[in-house]
Amino acid sequence: MDAKEIETLLTPLLEQEGAELVDMNWRREGHRWVLRLFLDKGGGITLDDCAYLSERVGAFIDEKGSIEQSYVLEVSSPGLDRVIKKEGDFERFSGKPVKIRLKLAENGQRKFSGTLRGLAEGKVAVQIGKILKQFDRRNIDELRLDDSAAIDLGEE
Asked: What is the pTM of this model?
């Protein structure tokens, strides 16, 4: 089973539990397979939520017999520097400080920091100082909230 199939399988269960799948990793690490889920909920996700959802997801996968090989399941919060991937995230986090890492450098630079301004027509808008820069979404290797900027501003 590949990562997309696992995401498709788990999304309805997580939505039923009031949780959002922010990001997921399904990979072989050494001699074992690891399924890492980064989950969030309205108002944030607690350690108890993660433990409960880990039990629910593990039992659900076992019941369905979806993953044949043995694996390790890890469930955690996305953290203050959560990844921004989904369409709705671009609107939800518009106005927040972000860090961007590009696949291919632009003018010799692959890393940028600024304020997210949204997504339109495959372009991610980020305010960098006085310049509104448009990044092709296909060239973005990773886009995350900038938790260091939140700390600098005295926000939580």
From this structure: 0.74
